[in-house]
Amino acid sequence: MHVRHLPATSTAAPAEAVTGSAWITALAVPDGPSRTRVDRVHFAPGARTHWHRHPLGQVLVVTEGTGYVQRRGGPARLIRPGDTVRVAAGEWHWHGATDTTPMTHLAIEELPGDGTPTELGGPAGAGEPATAPAVTRTVVLDQRLPAPRMIDRVEIRRITIAPGETAGLHVHNGPVFGSIETGSAVYQIDGEPESVLTPGDVFYEPESTRIARFDAQADGVTFVAHFPVGPGETPSLTILDS
After folding, report:
1. Three-state SS for 21?
2. Which among 154, 214, 164 has a CA at the least distance from the CA of 188?
3. Pairwise CA distance, residues 41 & 13, whole Å
4. Running DSSP on this structure, what letter comes out for residue 119?
5. What is the pTM of this model?
6. Cis before residue 7, ω within 30 degrees of 0?
7. Among 1, 36, 47, 73, which residue's Cβ finds the most Cβ atoms within 10 Å?
8. Residue 49 contacts residue 21 (beta carbons within 8 Å)
9. Do residues 165 and 159 make contact, with C-beta atoms less than 8 angstroms apart?
10. What is the DSSP code (8-state) at residue 194?
11. What mean pLDDT comes out for the span 49-68?
12. Which secondary-structure segment (H or E) carries 22?
C-alpha cells in the first residue's frame, strides 16, 4: 500500500490534445500487473479536449464545475458534479468545460497491454459542431457571513504572485472572496488541511482569520480578490510572525 499526500503536481495538458487551458494531475499510474490510470483534469472555462478515442474506453467522474461531453454523431450533454460518463472502447468523443464555468473530472482508463495509445482527432467543433447552449449559469460560491456587517462598496483586485513566492502567515481586516484565474497555489487556513487552488477554484477568507499558506507553485498564480468594505475602510493585510 502506498499513500501519497496532497499537494500533487499538475501539468498543462498538451496543446495537440486540448483547445484552451487544462491541467492534469496524475493520481494513479500503471504499476506491476495493474494497467489502470487515474488522472484529475481541470478545464478552464471554454477549454475542451479534441476529438479522441481510447482503445479500451474511459470513465469520467465530474467532481467540480459544469461541462459537456459529446460522442460523435450525438448531441453535447451537460455534466455536473456527481455525474459519471462511461465512454465505450474506440468511441470518438470530446469533453470539457462550458464557456462560462470551469470543470474538473477524474479520468479513469485501463491501458492496453500492447501499448496502443489514445488516438487524437481534430478540435471539437471542426466539421461537427457541439450542440451546446450558448449561456450557462452556475453558482460557484454561496457564502453566508458570520455576522451582519456594514458594507458600502466592494473593492476588486487582480493579484499576481510570482512562481515560488509565499504570502506568509497573515490576516485581513475584512472578509475576502477570491477566484483563481491562472496558475496554482497551495492554500491553507490555519489549523485546517491544505489544498491546491487551480483556475476556476474559489475561496473565502473570513475577517481576521489566520491564513497559513497562500504559496504560488512553479507556474505562479493570478487571482481576482473581492474585498467588501465599510465606510472609511481600506482593505489591508497584516503579516504575522507566528
Report:
1. coil
2. 214
3. 9
4. E
5. 0.54
6. yes
7. 47
8. no
9. no
10. -
11. 93
12. strand 22-28
Please tell me the predicted confidence (pLDDT) of residue 187: 94
Cell of 202: 474559489
State the Cα–Cα distance between residues 76 and 167, nearest whole angstrom: 42
How far is residue 156 from each of residues 141, 182, 206, measured CA to CA in Å? 16, 17, 16
- Segment 93-118 mean pLDDT: 91
Query: Which helix (H) or strand (E) element contains residue 225?
Result: strand 211-229
Paired residues of 187 in beta bridges: 195, 214
Average pLDDT across the chain, whole number: 88
Is residue 198 scored above 90 in pLDDT? no
Q: What is the number of other CB atoms lying within 10 angstroms of the CB of residue 139?
A: 6
Cα–Cα distance measured from residue 107 to residue 103, given in angstroms and rounded to the nearest whole number = 12
Please classify residue 167 by burial: count the beta carbons closer than 10 Å to its beta carbon, then call 0-12 exposed, 13-18 middle and 19+ buried: middle
Which cell goes with 170?
Answer: 497573515
Cα 105–Cα 100–Cα 38 angle in degrees, nearest 5: 10
Q: What's the number of CA atoms in the CB half-sphere (13 Å) around residue 145?
A: 13
- The x, y and z cell numbers of residue 171, run together, are 490576516
∠ at Cα 223 (48, 194), nearest 5°?
Answer: 90
Find all residues with CB under 8 Å of 50, minimum gap 6, and list them.
Answer: 16, 17, 18, 19, 94, 120, 121, 122, 123, 124
Q: Are 205 and 189 in contact (CB under 8 A)?
A: yes
Distance separating alpha carbons of residues 191 and 171, to the nearest angstrom: 14
